[in-house]
Amino acid sequence: MIKKKKVTFENSKKGLPILRLKGRYLSSPTDPEKEAAKWCVRNEELFYAEYIIVLGAGSGYHLMELVKRWPSRKILVIEPHREVISAVKEIHRHIFMLGIEFINIQSIDQIYNNDAIRTALENRYSVVDYNLNVYQSSFLNFELVEFLNARSLEGLRFVAGLRGYLDETDEQEYEELSRFDEGNLLSINNVSEIEFDVFSNDEIKWKKRVLGKLIGGNSMSRPILAIQLLRLGDILMSIPALNDLRKTPR
Fold this sequence. Notes:
The chain has helices at 32-42, 61-69, 82-91, 109-112, 115-122, 138-148, 153-162, 168-180, 202-216, 222-229, 232-237, 243-247; strands at residues 2-4, 7-11, 17-21, 24-25, 51-55, 74-78, 101-103, 125-129.
């Protein structure tokens, strides 16, 4: 076994090179290619978007399978460990020729100045994760997922702002909410049952209005999405209501 900092290489039972991060497998130790194919099938509905943001580079087999099945998609891979990115490129030596862009990000602040991610969020995109439980990271497993899917207050503001749907009133109210909930802007899912009142919570009202603008920008999707907005479950999850929008040409 060749040790490379926190990342180690070994062979799967099928004889294919795979990676471990701090001792934990980043892909199937038996057959990573078969696992990659199943991952693509399981998440197929998310691959109709123009931009696909993949969270987790794994051992790279899911990325190779994704490109094979959807060669026209623009694929961004967010991976918090540089060593993993280097190791994946070592296993798949021609992966750089396939148009996959690897992005090393470890905080939300880094997203604001990343041109590739900004471009993706301005267009039809989807977010799909791969073996995030291996990382045991609250940033990857929760904060980043909530932000990119615009389920968090900060994430919804960022995506809607990029697309030009925020007016001065929206910005002012966002600043007020930010001051009130400073340090606790991850998601409305954080609100406890005792405190939560869907009819009076200012954050819910702001999200519903801004989300309405965001999805209302596509007239073909508006009727279905308007109905979805009235359902509390969809309001809480926010961005799943955008899945139809991503599949519909702008």
